[in-house]
Every structure is written in C-alpha cells, then in structure tokens.
Write a structure and sequence with these properties.
Blueprint: H1 2-19, E1 28-32, E2 35-38, E3 44-52, E4 58-64, E5 67-78, E6 81-94, E7 97-101, H2 110-116, H3 123-128, E8 130-135, E9 138-142, H4 148-160, E10 164-167, E11 172-174, E12 177-185, E13 194-201, E14 204-212, E15 214-217, H5 219-230, H6 232-269, H7 274-283
Parallel strand pairs: 2-15, 7-10
Antiparallel strand pairs: 1-3, 3-12, 4-7, 4-13, 5-6, 6-8, 8-9, 11-12, 13-14
C-alpha cells in the first residue's frame, strides 16, 4: 500500500510539474552593443536591450553604474559677495541610474519598489548615500533631510545630463520577448554599468536577470584619465602647457582679427593709412 501511495504521489508531482508553464521564473536580458568606446568625439550611444520574460508579466529594467564619490560646493552670501560657504563629499552614489518599464511605477507596491531599488524619487539611492560636509574648520555627517539640498542639486544635475532617467511604458512586449532602446549620454562615465531586468506579475517577482555594459575610454581620453590617476605631476604639467598654448593661440587670433578689422574699416571709410601719407609727402 505504501508503495502504491508513493507511486501515486510521484505521478501527481510529475503532472503538477507538467501543468506549470515552462517559462515560469525564466528571465533573460542582453545588450547590443555591449562594448562601448569613449573617444574625443563621443557624444552618446544608442544601446538596444532585449530579452525574454513570462508572457503577461510586467518588465522593469534598471541600468546602474558602480558607486562613486562626488564633491559638491554650496554657495551663500557674505555681504555683497557670493561665495562657497561649505563643501560636501557624497559617497555611494552611482554615476548612471536609468529606469525603464512596461507599466507605470505606481503599479509596484512599496515593498517591491524597495526590493528592486526602483522608485519614482530615487529613494533607494538617497537612503544609501553617505554625505560628509565641511564648513570652515568643522566637519559633520549628514543624514536624512540634512543632506537633502546636496542630493537634490546632484540629482538635478544628473537628470539634466541624462545620467539619471525614468521612462515608464518604454518597454515593448511581444509574447515572451521584450525590447527597448536606451540612449547613453555623452557624459556617461567609464566602467561597467549593470543591467537588471525584473519580471513582475500579480505583485510577485517571477524572475530577474543581469547583464553588463563595458564603457571604457580610448585614445587621448584614455591617456588623459589614466595619467590623471597614475601620474599627477605629468598630468598637471601637460595641463599648464596646454593652457599656455591655448592662451598664445587666442592672443594671436585676436591680433589677427584686430588687424583685419582695422583694414576693413579703412577701406570702407576711404581713409589712407598714416604710412602712405608720409611716403607721399616725401615723394613730392
């Protein structure tokens, strides 16, 4: 009897497994191109992101770069002067944070938003940020509303540069496939941003998949960044020489334009140059 019961339970488990769709919990994501070169003429790059997710599920894609450190200044008035009154170092902040979805983010419950790190106000980033402010000789750590001004300024700057972005209803679905096109801005920093795709249905995460982008500088951009990190003296010397060369070139250009403008004015007004009048007097 036990043997028959065991066999029946085994057969029931097989039938139950066959009744479950083969796609349940299966999510994949890829990017093309996955390798991006950043040179002097780099002004941005379109990246095609596609993958598979269970039919009928909502897809949310997050592209986030490794956390970095950012320095900001806060300006204030001293009498009639407008100057820096404090400095802040913000740590644990990604330089790239893009969110795309096939449905509005409001359809995600607060618990899912927290688990996925996806929300309309970048709250997930705000909570992880570490802010150290220096004003005069005093340094303090800021948390919560104390660091709101710095984070608001930083997020506004990143959003204007296209580094932080939220686009709802931007993912196209066709059966089990999804597709979207992402435009990386020219200000995208080097590194390996992570692409994370989530499939959500009936308030549950059915599955997730990860992929990476490889963004790295080439040519002069690579030399400049590598030298700045590894050889500060050489980088500073080159910066001074370039500044001097640029100053000399601008000075030469202004002198040239000044002479050309003076010659054009003399021609238009019919005035004879002083040198010519003196030469004409000596001839007579």
């Amino acid at each position: 009897m036990r043997t028959k019961a065991t066999i029946c339970m085994f057969m029931a488990a097989i039938l139950l497994a066959l009744c479950i769709p083969a796609w349940a919990g299966v999510v994949s994501v890829t990017a093309s191109p996955a390798h991006i070169d950043v040179g002097l003429n780099f002004s941005g790059q379109k990246v095609s992101i596609s993958g598979n997710a269970p039919p009928g599920s909502d897809v949310y894609v997050k592209i986030v770069s490794p956390a970095t450190e950012v320095k900001l200044d806060k300006k204030g008035r001293y009498g009639f002067l407008w100057m820096n009154v404090s400095h802040a170092t913000i740590q644990n902040i990604p330089g790239l944070y893009l969110i795309y979805s096939s449905k509005p983010l409001k359809e995600l419950s607060p618990s899912l938003q927290e688990r996925m790190g996806i929300d309309p106000d970048f709250s997930a980033i705000r909570e992880k940020a570490v802010i150290k402010e220096t004003a005069g000789n005093q340094t303090r750590m800021l948390a919560g509303l104390q660091g709101k001004d710095y984070l608001d300024a930083l997020f506004n700057m990143y959003e204007k540069n296209g580094l932080y972005r939220i686009k709802e209803n931007a993912i196209l679905r066709e059966g089990s496939q999804f597709h979207l096109t992402v435009t990386l801005p020219g200000s995208a920093t080097q590194g390996q941003p992570e692409i994370i795709a989530y499939a959500v249905k009936d308030g549950q995460i059915l599955g997730a998949s990860r992929s990476t982008l490889d963004i790295h500088p080439v040519g002069l951009v690579r030399w400049e960044r590598t030298t700045a990190q590894n050889n500060g003296l050489l980088y500073g010397t080159c910066a001074v020489l370039i500044a001097l060369a640029a100053g000399l070139m601008i000075n030469f250009l202004f002198q040239f334009l000044e002479k050309r403008l003076a010659a054009l004015l003399r021609k238009l007004t019919g005035r004879v140059p002083e040198e010519r009048r003196e030469l004409s007097t000596e001839t007579h």
